[in-house]
Amino acid sequence: MVSNAFSAPYLPAGMRSVKIVVLGPFGVGKTSYIGAISEIAPLRTEERLTRAGQVVDELNVATKSTTTVALDFGRRTLGGGIVVYLFGAPGQPRFADMIRSLLDGALGGLVLVDTRRIEESFESIGLLEEADVPYVIAVNTFAGAPLYDEAVLRDALSLPPARPVVHLDARHLESAKTGLIALVADILRPMRSVT
Ligand SMILES: Nc1nc2c(ncn2[C@@H]2O[C@H](COP(=O)(O)OP(=O)(O)OP(=O)(O)O)[C@@H](O)[C@H]2O)c(=O)[nH]1
Ligand SMILES: [Mg+2]
């Protein structure tokens, strides 16, 4: 799918840019992921969680005091002259329309999953399927969260066989990169290998 990566006029010759979106439910680690992986200071749109928000949002993660209300943005250059622009989605289901717009022009999606609440990632997968955007599942490994065999996870997510699954820690660069590399390799396959 060579046509999926495109050269932008402002990039040095030989560089290609790829837009990807990081999705997943509230508090799964999307903002942490972009913060860990971005080579530029990430753009964040965090607002404090309030009692008013509890009326409309199901917030099952008690330890957070802020939430993304628009998007995160970061950039990472990979080997092979590939510049990845990362857009982090907000987590609450009421932002679905906004996520649909974020997916406009995206070449791939990274869906973060917390194994304590796998079903909460269905909505993200649904939005990607609806937009016909290829995606990779990235299990964000929280301490104390159950570990499942890949087959069990695939079954729980009703995942098509072609969709890759990786495990990572969204807070650490080298671990976070495994998800990005799996996604970009999938998007560009069989164009080239990336590192
Ligand atoms: N143990 C552990 N904690 C993590 C990991 N990734 C993120 N966290 C923590 O989990 C919380 C969630 O982080 P965020 O990155 O704000 O999550 P988010 O998905 O952007 O949340 P919303 O924007 O509100 O939907 C933070 O307190 C992180 O420090 C991880 O891999 N392991
Ligand atoms: Mg966030």
UniProtKB/TrEMBL annotation:
Keyword entries, A-Z: GTP-binding, Hydrolase, Nucleotide-binding
Superkingdom field: Bacteria
Transit peptide found in the keyword field: no
One Pfam family named in its UniProt record: ATP_bind_1
PANTHER family per the UniProt record, alphabetical: ATP/GTP-BINDING PROTEIN-RELATED, GLIDING MOTILITY PROTEIN MGLA
UniProt family annotation: Belongs to the GPN-loop GTPase family.
Protein's UniProt name: ATP/GTP-binding protein
Organism field: Streptomyces prunicolor
Lineage start: Bacteria, Bacillati, Actinomycetota, Actinomycetes, Kitasatosporales
